[in-house]
């Protein structure tokens, strides 16, 4: 048998489809391949890369995801994590779950903790995200993959998480089983408002902007619940720079001109939306 970090990806070969030709995949010694000859090697670092020649994504680098991982570990997003985990409660313990746009992987790891006999896959287009998420091993299968071309066969997924990240509803509907669950988390008006105020004139959009995400979702799936989650936490001095570095709000901000000592509190304000997909 292959090393655990490789074997766990070989074990899900039957769920996969080739992102290049759409064929089903099969397990090989240390890779998965389709009948068309497309072969994807499983990294010794514990992930499967379906975009091997991708260029780095501006802003979404290892510093961003490592900062995000530390902020999650320090529980600034505790109530969002708890709400997402609670939304998985109705699933069978043997469910197949994807975290689409998994970032540093904390929500996928929560899903395994809640449903330890489930099959959980974390997908992100950023290789640096998956590299950070895969550290330390564990049962989650990590895939570098494009959400516009998810490398999974049709109707194989019981639930999809999509947390603070763009969605592709056509792909979600393709991979979800009929009745499958989507748990989407979007920012609410007071999300990170302290950071916006700190950055002030450096931001092109200093105020919260609702881009109609929920309305767009409702055109694709049936929304069954919407829950507002708000948590304000005191900021530990060592976390202030990480909060800046892990927020897309601050991508255009010069860190050196920010008065980080004045960032004494941070608010995480989000809406957790649960929706069902039905082929009717």
In short:
The protein is α/β, with parallel strands linked by helices and 280 residues long. It contains nine helices and eleven strands.
Largest sheet: 8 strands, mixed
Order of helices and strands: HEEEEHHEHEHEEHEHHEHE
Strand order of the largest sheet: 4-7-6-5-8-9-11-10
End-to-end C-alpha gap: 43 Å
What integer is the average pLDDT?
92
> Which range best describes the helical content: under 10%, 10-25%, 25-40%, 40-55%, 55-70% or over 70%?
25-40%
The chain-level structural class is alpha/beta
Rg to the nearest angstrom? 19 Å
Tally of alpha and pi helices: 9
Task: Report the principal-axis shape.
Answer: globular
Beta-strand content: 25-35%
How is this structure best described in words?
The protein is α/β, with parallel strands linked by helices and 280 residues long. It contains nine helices and eleven strands. The strands form two sheets. An eight-stranded mixed beta sheet has the order 4-7-6-5-8-9-11-10, with helices on both faces. The chain has a three-stranded antiparallel beta sheet with strand order 1-2-3. α2 crosses α5 (127-134). The mean pLDDT is 92.
